[in-house]
């Protein structure tokens, strides 16, 4: 089969995805607060409106690239690449972070036997850090993905799109692995797969209806913001997750269309974010967790009116610092950077 052309716009969409994921995790109210603090609610609502559910972007990319690169597919190479590029850095970072939080963190009376006993639980459930749930979730999908290649494309194209309606049920269970989580997210993986099958036709239609999709994205962003602002404690979770799905899918299609339109343009920043996306995924939350105390000290001496601006500056600082540490880590680890850092 013909070698597939490298799609720079999809590569840059990976950068867009990781940037959104990091903003969702590190754009936080910079001081301790209670749930009634109006500035905290404003920041949390804005963060959710723009960046909530950004994992959807990663899942679309995974499904798309699996099908797009099927001409290179062999079972051995596929599973080895997933172990090397995903599982290995996940295990490395999980054990490293567990060790740091156990022996240098707030855990009292920790012992080596307790640490060793915690390793399997942390790896199975992805609890070393908040974002790590994604790896135990996606591994079963990676395992069964080759079976999707056995489905005739005509049947896939005809029947699978009905499955794309399932996330509208809003069954996502946060970061807890469950049947509802797969019911919500697996159709998005299939959507990426489907997008690759019909890429030219779909992108042509997206380009034609880009304005309408953009309006839909804006309406979904406004709705998300409203739901968070008005009912942050007793929000209808199913409705909320359904709106997030509409928001992120419409944003995905608009951004992909705009990036494809500028396929020939190159960006060093987007290239770096894309190349280090997995390393950034593994590190950003830990970096933010370790240095957030600095933000709270600085914000305590700032004028109260600048809290919102400071929170944005802080989020961009953490992202920049994480990227620099990833670049440094790659240089230090050399040829072992892929299995250790995912980059």
Walk me through this protein's architecture.
Helix content is 73%, strand content 0%. It is mostly helical and 343 residues long. The protein has one domain. Helix 4 (75-103) packs across helix 5, helix 4 (75-103) packs parallel to helix 13 (277-300) and helix 10 packs antiparallel against helix 11. The longest helix is centred in the N-terminal third of the chain and has 29 residues, at 75-103. The two termini are 28 Å apart. 34% of the residues are buried. The model has no long low-confidence stretch (mean pLDDT 86).
What ranges have pLDDT less than 50 throughout 5 or more consecutive residues? Answer: none
* Number of H/I helices: 15
Number of strands: 0
Overall shape: it is: globular
Order of helical and strand elements? HHHHHHHHHHHHHHH
The figure for the number of domains is 1
Mean pLDDT, to the nearest integer, reads: 86
Determine the N-to-C terminus distance.
28 Å
Main β-sheet: number of strands, strand sense, barrel status? none
* Proportion of helical residues: over 70%
Q: What does the radius of gyration come to?
A: 21 Å
Class by SSE composition: mainly alpha
- Portion of residues in beta strands equals under 5%
Membrane topology: Multi-pass membrane protein
Keywords: Acyltransferase, Cell membrane, Membrane, Transferase, Transmembrane, Transmembrane helix
Family: Belongs to the acyltransferase 3 family.
Subcellular location: Cell membrane
């Amino acid at each position: 089969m013909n070698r597939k052309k490298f799609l720079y716009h999809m590569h840059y969409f990976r950068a867009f995805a990781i940037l959104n994921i990091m903003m969702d995790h590190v754009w936080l109210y910079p001081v301790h607060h209670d749930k009634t603090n109006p500035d905290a609610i404003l920041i949390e609502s804005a963060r959710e409106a723009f960046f909530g559910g950004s994992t959807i972007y990663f899942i679309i990319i995974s499904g798309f690239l699996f099908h797009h690169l099927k001409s290179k597919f062999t079972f051995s190479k596929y599973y080895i690449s997933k172990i090397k590029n995903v599982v290995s850095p996940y295990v490395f970072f999980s054990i490293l972070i567990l060790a740091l939080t156990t022996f240098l963190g707030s855990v009292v009376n920790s012992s080596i036997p307790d640490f060793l006993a915690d390793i399997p639980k942390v790896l199975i459930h992805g609890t070393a850090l908040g974002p790590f749930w994604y790896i135990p979730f996606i591994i079963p999908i990676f395992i069964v993905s080759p079976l999707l290649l056995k489905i005739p494309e005509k049947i896939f194209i005809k029947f699978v799109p009905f499955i794309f309606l399932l996330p509208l049920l809003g069954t996502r269970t946060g970061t807890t692995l469950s049947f509802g989580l797969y019911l919500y997210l697996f159709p998005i993986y299939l959507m990426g797969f489907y997008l690759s099958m019909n890429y030219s036709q779909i992108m042509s239609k997206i380009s034609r209806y880009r304005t309408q999709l953009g309006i839909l994205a804006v309406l979904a962003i406004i709705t998300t913001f409203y739901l968070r602002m008005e009912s942050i404690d007793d929000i209808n979770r199913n409705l909320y997750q359904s709106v997030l799905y509409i928001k992120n899918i419409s944003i995905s299609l608009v951004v992909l269309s705009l990036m494809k339109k500028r396929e020939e343009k190159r960006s060093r920043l987007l290239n770096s974010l894309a190349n280090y996306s997995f390393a950034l995924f593994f590190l950003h939350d830990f970096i933010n967790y370790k240095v957030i105390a600095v933000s709270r000290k600085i914000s305590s001496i700032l004028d109260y009116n600048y809290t919102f601006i400071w929170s944005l500056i802080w989020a961009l600082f953490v992202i920049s610092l994480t990227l620099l540490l990833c670049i440094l880590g790659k240089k230090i680890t050399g040829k072992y950077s892929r299995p250790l850092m995912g980059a």
